[in-house]
Amino acid sequence: MIERLQISHLRNLTQVQLALKSCNVIIGANGSGKTSLLEAIFLLSRGKSFRHHQPKRYIEHHQSSVTVFSSLVDGSSLAIQKQLDATTSLRINYSNVYNQSALTAKLPTLLIDPSSMEMLEQGSTNRRQLLDWLVFHMKPGFHPQWLAYQRLLKQRNQLLKQPKPLSKAQLSELRAWDQGLSNHAALIDHYRQQVFEAWQPYFQDIIAKLLPKYAAQLSLSYTAGFDSQLPLDEQLAKRLDQDLKLGYSRIGSHRADVHVHWHSKSIEKSEDNEAPTVTTETKIIKEQAANVLSRGEKKLLITALKLSQLPLLTQNPVKATEPSAVPMVLIDDITAELDDRAIHILLDTLSKLPCQLFITSLSDEILPLIKKYCSEPKLFHVKHGQVSDFSLDS
């Protein structure tokens, strides 16, 4: 858990120092900098912003870098610095480290931002990343396999873009990479399958609370991105001609997906004109939930997908996070996207889990509700990038 947070030159946050508690509420108008506080924590944990991937978009104007430093309750410290050209410096306990995953493991951070429709309505990337975040924290062997797979995939795709036809040496090299991809893909799929199966009951539990009317009609499924019953290298060999034409690999672990399904019943009637009997046939129709739910219902569904991961992460004994790693839950503009019933369910669920909360809101009207679940929240007020302690009596 973060005990102290320092931010330098992130958007309009020139110099900010905060002493934090387990529940932190940030009040401020639009554009004041409250979301930037969440962005700083996310940057420290993930090495990137959830708003823009280019550092020049979030580094303060006329500054060359942004720095985020945190002291944790266990006495350790984490720091990240991003330059305008995206050069990154990472430190743990004031010593340089060279992999973002080292900070991510110590500071698992989950952003609950149901305003983003991309997860349901666009490609598989965001849904796959949601699953992989959970697998990373639960399965120690996953990340090395994933990194090795990504390196080989990049080499394979570069070769697929070379002038045709490929030489015998290039084809031999391609077969070796395909074998490596196959070995890594089998393990990646194994880890994903295990975590996905463990995740499903928690998702169904949260859906029953947030969208009780549709709980029986919503379900998750996982696809590996290839036929997991066959070696991936054999499948890649059969598709080589098509991949050479396209210049990239169309199947593999990088195409895995988590689908959110909607199940509905269709009743077909048939009647015999010469007899009074009527027979009916019921069919189950399965389609993407994004095609059926309203915008408000999609927001609740996205919240359920993310919130349902936390009990698994904090309660499952098989996890890669260190014993001191308490998940950070970032909830941006809580009243803008969720109604009172959903907020009650969200806060009630979070209050029962060992996590550190960061909640932003436009108004302090949310505070009485938050105090029902967080006995002593730390309150902050943000105005024009300046952060101050706040109380209802002030």
Number of domains: 2
What's the CATH topology label of the largest domain? Glutathione S-transferase Yfyf (Class Pi), Chain A, domain 2
* Sheet/helix structural class: alpha/beta
In the CATH classification, which architecture of the largest domain applies? Up-down Bundle
How far the N terminus sits from the C terminus, by CA atoms, comes to 28 Å
Low-pLDDT runs of 5+ residues are 317-322
Offer a few descriptive terms.
alpha/beta, 394 residues, six-stranded antiparallel β-sheet, Rossmann fold, 26% strand, Glutathione S-transferase Yfyf (Class Pi), Chain A, domain 2, 2 domains, 39% helix, six-stranded mixed β-sheet
Can you put this structure into words, describing what you see?
There is one protein chain. This protein has 394 residues and is of the alpha/beta class. Helix content is 39%, strand content 26%. The protein contains 13 helices and 15 strands. The strands form three sheets. A six-stranded antiparallel beta sheet has the order 2-1-4-5-6-7, with helices on one face. The protein has a six-stranded mixed beta sheet with strand order 8-12-13-3-14-15. Strands 9-10-11 form a three-stranded antiparallel beta sheet. Strand 14 and strand 15 form a beta hairpin. Mean pLDDT is 90; it is low at 317-322.
